[in-house]
Each structure stands twice: as C-alpha cells, then as structure tokens.
Design brief:
about 425 residues; mainly alpha
Length: about 425
C-alpha cells in the first residue's frame, strides 16, 4: 500500500472516530513524518512559524471589535437603519436581517459572529411577526455567512497568508461578490415570505424616519468607512485597521452610546478567546500542507483533473463540488490551509487569478457554514432560536441554492471579483 493511501486511511478513520480535527491532522502528519523518516522537529518549527506572521493578529482584533460593536449598541442601530428602508415589503424583517448582516459583516470578519450579533435581535422579532421559526433561523444563518466574504474577512486573511496573495486586494475583491450574494439572499427571502404571507406591515419608506435612523446610527456607519477607507487610503495596514476598530468600538460603546459595561467587555474578551482558539488548527494543517508538497500531491491532482478536462470553468466547478462536500465536516480554516496548496497551482495554470480563486474558495466555505453536521452558522442559529439543527438544515436549503447560484455566476464571470482591485491597484503581475 502506498504511503498516500496509508495517510488517507489514517485521516479518515481518525475523523470518523470523532477526534478533534487538529488532533486528527496532527496525528496523520506525525505518521507521515515517521514513514518518510523526517525529524519530528518539523512539527515544532512549523508550529512556531505558523503563528508568527503579523497579519494573524488581525483575526482576534476584528473578532473583538465586532463583539464590542454588538454589545455596545452599534448592531441595534444598523438594524434600525435597515428597518426604515424595507419595513413595508413582504418579509420585511427577513430582509432587514440580510441587510443588517451585510452591514455588520464589514465590522466582524466572521460568519458565526455576524450570525450571533444580528440574529440575537432579529430572530425574536421575526417570531413576534409570525415567521416560521426554522425559516427565521435559516435567514439569520445564511445572511451571517456574509461575514466571511465582505471585508474584513478572517478567511480571506488566512487565504492571503497561505497563498501569499495581497490581503488588501482580497478584501477589495470581496465587495462586489458580497453585494451580489446579498441581493440573491434578499430575493430568496422575499419570494418565500411573499408565498407565506410574512411581514409587510411596517411603514413605507420615507426620508424622515430614514434620516433619523441614519443620524442615530452615524457612529455605526462610520466604522466600516473608517476601517476600509483607512486601508485603501493607505493610512494603515489591515492589522493596524483591526486595532483602530477595537479602539473605535470601545470609544463609541463607552462614551457615545454608553451601553458598554465591564461585564459586557469581559464577555467580549471571552467570546474572542473562544472563537479565535480555532487558530490552533494552523500548526498541524500547515505541516500537513508541507508534506503534500513533498509527496507532490498538487501535481498528481493537476494531472488527474486535467486528464478529465482542461476547461477552467469545468475545473472550477469540480473544485467547488469538492469544497462543498468537504465543508460539511471540515472547519473552513483547515479547509483553506489544506487545499489551497493543492488546488491553487492547478487554477493558476489554467489562467485563474489567485484573488478570484480566493473569493471562490470563501464562497464555498460559506456553504459549509450552512451544511450539517459541522455547520458553524447553523449551530449559532439553533442556539439563538432554541430549535434543532435538523429543522434549520431543511429550511436553509433555498439559501444554499442562492450561494450556489452566486458561485456559478462568479465562475462564469470571474471579473466580478478582480474588477475593483485591478481598478485601484492595477492588474496583478
């Protein structure tokens, strides 16, 4: 039996046994090191190196900033702005949820964090308006996934580090696809809500209430403008922008809205520690990725897929199907670290821009947020709505369809992703 087959069997067995993913990957890597007789210091060296890149600090800082903005009152004011825009339409609170998640995604960088921040307010509101609870939870879970696509995005940061792609270019590339998927989710919400007769009892749009809500939430709107404007204006790097976001959220929560208390601050720090603990996956997965290069796995995958087709659109479709399948049971961070090294060389050999491939990868990861048994967003939405993941999993299927449509549009029209970065920075060399 070949070493690759042994490693594959080892990984699958450990995963099926329910062993935590970082342990399963670490043990498989240790077996691989033993087979090819490489010093075990590789694990220690890779572990140290994986956690030293300065941009990694961006992830806990953006998570903390997003949580502080949630408990400090900024999320509620974003929901207020969204409500004045679509309150009179069918499915109004569902549309508010999607729109508010899009706004909050520009603050948190995390899909589960966005789901928790907005869903904790809008799911109870949808219940009061007579929405079917699984449908309300499904809207929240699917819209919350936008937090991983719209900048700043933790997954794009990891992809940028692994692929050595410019993080500012990736952030800018996520804007148009993020807007496209927001529209697709709102269309899906509207169609289902119209058929079921949900919502539509709010006041029609008028400038007075909107301007009042916008003025009340001006500090909330100012956050993404400050963060993204500072990055693309050259005032600070993404990591420095994350630090600015934390300071801004503390200032607004403590001195402007005065809703941030010591208890809430401690809760935000605890939430950040729990959510960013997933970075422990970096050490074993990066070591495993180095071993795949040693075994020349990327070349084998490239030869295998190109023997079927060399059409880049079909190749991306095949990769997308694989990513969606693997995302049902693998954490998105590990998925990006493990498979970017395998599939990116294939994609670039067919003329796919690495920036576009990063956006494509994150969209497939967002679908993974919505598919059991892992489904991080489903877990958060189930906790908020007090129903089982199984019930939400059925209700979320139309929204998964919206993401798949968005993925297909991106495959067919890849310039959607690279249009803004190429316009601001020029074509990548």
């Amino acid at each position: 039996m070949s070493p690759l087959a042994i490693l594959a069997i080892c990984f699958v067995i450990l995963t099926i046994m329910g062993i935590p993913l970082f342990v399963a990957v670490g043990l498989t890597t240790a077996v691989a090191i033993y087979i090819i007789d490489i010093p075990y210091t590789l694990m220690a060296q890779t572990g140290y190196g994986s956690l030293t890149p300065f941009p990694l600090l961006t992830i806990p800082l953006f998570v903390l900033a997003g949580r502080l903005m949630e408990v400090g009152g900024m999320a509620n004011r974003m929901i207020g702005i969204a409500t004045t825009l679509v309150g009179a339409y069918r499915g109004s609170m569902g549309l508010v949820t999607v729109f508010a998640c899009m706004l909050f995604a520009a603050l948190s960088g995390s899909g589960p964090a966005t789901t928790a921040a907005i869903g904790s307010v809008t799911v109870p509101a949808m219940k009061r308006e007579g929405y079917d609870i699984p449908f309300a939870a499904a809207i929240t879970a699917s819209a919350g996934a936008l937090g991983s696509l719209i900048p700043p995005s933790n997954l794009l940061i990891i992809y940028g580090l692994v692929s050595e792609t410019s993080i500012p270019r990736l952030f800018l590339a996520g804007l148009l696809p993020g807007l496209m998927i927001t529209i697709l989710l709102m269309i899906t919400t509207y169609i289902i809500a119209r058929r079921r007769g949900y919502g539509g009892n709010g006041d029609p749009f008028s400038w007075g209430p909107f301007l009042k809500a916008a003025w009340d939430g001006k500090w909330s709107i100012g956050a993404p403008i400050l963060i993204l404007g500072g990055i693309y204006g050259g005032a600070f790097t993404p990591t420095e922008a994350a630090g600015v976001a934390v300071f801004y959220s503390l200032f607004v929560g403590l001195f402007i809205y005065r809703e941030l208390t010591l208890k809430k601050l401690i809760d935000a720090l605890r939430f950040t520690a729990l959510l960013t603990g997933i970075l422990i996956l970096l050490t074993p997965t990066l070591a495993f990725g180095q071993l795949t290069a040693f075994y020349d796995v990327p070349t084998a995958v490239q030869d295998g897929i190109t023997s079927i087709t060399e059409n880049k659109y079909l190749v991306l479709l095949l990769i997308g199907i694989f990513y969606i399948f693997i995302g049902t049971f693998m954490e998105s961070l590990a998925q990006i670290v493990l498979f970017t090294a395998v599939f990116l060389p294939l994609a670039t050999s067919l003329g796919v821009d690495p920036v576009m491939f990063g956006i494509f990868t994150v969209i497939t990861c967002e679908i993974g947020f919505l598919t059991p048994p892992l489904g991080a967003n489903l877990t958060v939405a189930a906790r908020i709505s007090n129903i089982s993941i199984e019930r939400i999993s059925v209700a979320v299927l139309p929204f998964i369809g919206a993401y798949i449509v968005g993925m297909l549009i991106l495959i067919a029209f890849p310039d959607i992703a690279v249009l803004l970065p190429n316009w601001l920075y020029g074509p990548a060399l």
